[in-house]
Design goal:
Layout: E1 2-6, H1 10-21, E2 25-29, H2 40-45, E3 52-55, H3 61-71, E4 79-82, H4 88-100, E5 104-111, H5 116-119, E6 122-126, H6 129-134, H7 136-142, E7 148-152, H8 156-183, H9 192-198, H10 208-220, H11 236-246, H12 252-264, H13 270-283
Helix pairs in contact: 8-11, 8-12, 8-13, 9-10, 10-13
Length: 300
């Protein structure tokens, strides 16, 4: 299948490569890197109707601007796909706006981070049946076996991805707090790299996140002394909590995990270092390095 990819950052570049390896023809547009097109208008002209156009760009204003610009150039029957972490309310609105112009809109929650190129991206698609079925060859190429589903109507893909990321917050915080307790132990000089390693096999807390934490300890040492414990959030945890409040559903773990990220921006802690290291491992998110002059010895 021939499609257009808008955005060639950490995720978009990997997805483009995986699609090309899978036999698809991908035209690209990203003003920051070499692309097949120098504008959205040119990108649209490189495709044949019905055109699938995949936006893989940060949620927010840049997605809104790109969506509005695309609608000036596409034709009825074309398919605009948003694979970023957009708020599902925005996706519902964009579906309605596109529909008024006869254009299809599909929202796809994407998980897999920088590892997706190699192992595949988990995909949660939302939208009407016809356009989703049309782009399924793309989705099945990007996903590993059993890693893709059409989860519901317009907005459902981004809704499910929002909850996915809220759960991720809680899992990461649990690991972070547990390893901080071990790191702070006055009785034992524990090898956290070793412990993360053995927990990967047979333990009930084994997971891909634990494998990534083991890799982070391998790279940066068990004290993570070069990583500043400053943990960003990209919005999905906040949106999950807001939706839970609207539905009268208690989410104390996810709420506490989000507040722990807020606290990490005020005070340094080992738990925050673990969280920062994990985000770097699975998503390629930048870590804030500890300045050499500020680095302090392991307190144990």
């Amino acid at each position: 299948m021939k499609l257009g990819m808008i955005g060639l950052g950490r995720m978009g570049s990997g997805m483009t490569e995986r699609l090309r390896d899978g036999g698809h023809e991908v035209c690209t547009y990203d003003p920051r890197v070499d692309s097949t097109a120098h504008s959205l208008e040119e990108l649209v002209s490189q495709l044949e109707p019905p055109r699938p156009l995949w936006m893989m760009i940060p949620a927010g204003e840049i997605t809104e601007q790109t969506f509005e610009e695309l609608l000036k150039h596409v034709e009825a029957g074309d398919i605009v796909i948003d694979g970023g972490n957009s708020n599902f309310h925005d996706s519902l609105r964009r579906h309605s706006v596109a529909k008024d112009k006869g254009v299809h809109f599909v929202d796809v929650g994407v998980s897999g981070g920088v590892w997706g190129l190699e192992v595949g991206f988990c995909l949660m698609a939302g939208g009407d049946d016809e356009p989703v079925q049309h782009v399924e060859p793309i989705l099945k190429t990007l996903a590993p076996p059993d890693g893709y589903a059409h989860v519901g109507g317009p907005g459902a893909g981004h809704f499910v991805k929002m909850i996915h990321n809220g759960i991720e917050y809680g899992l990461m915080q649990a690991y972070a707090e547990g390893f901080e307790v071990m790191h702070a132990s006055p009785e034992y000089d524990l090898d956290l790299h070793q412990i993360a390693g053995i927990w990967r096999y047979g333990s009930v807390v084994r997971s891909w996140l634990l494998e990534l934490l083991h890799a982070a300890f391998e790279k940066d040492g068990s004290s993570l002394e070069k990583i500043r414990g400053y943990v960003e959030d990209s919005g999905e945890g906040r949106w999950t909590i807001a939706e839970a409040i609207a539905e009268d559903v208690p989410v104390p773990v996810i709420s506490a995990a989000l507040y722990a990220r807020f606290a990490s921006r005020q005070d340094e802690s080992f738990a925050a270092k673990v969280n920062a290291a994990l985000r770097n491992q699975f998503g390629g998110h930048a870590v804030r390095a500890v300045e050499a002059a500020q680095a302090s010895p392991d307190p144990r």
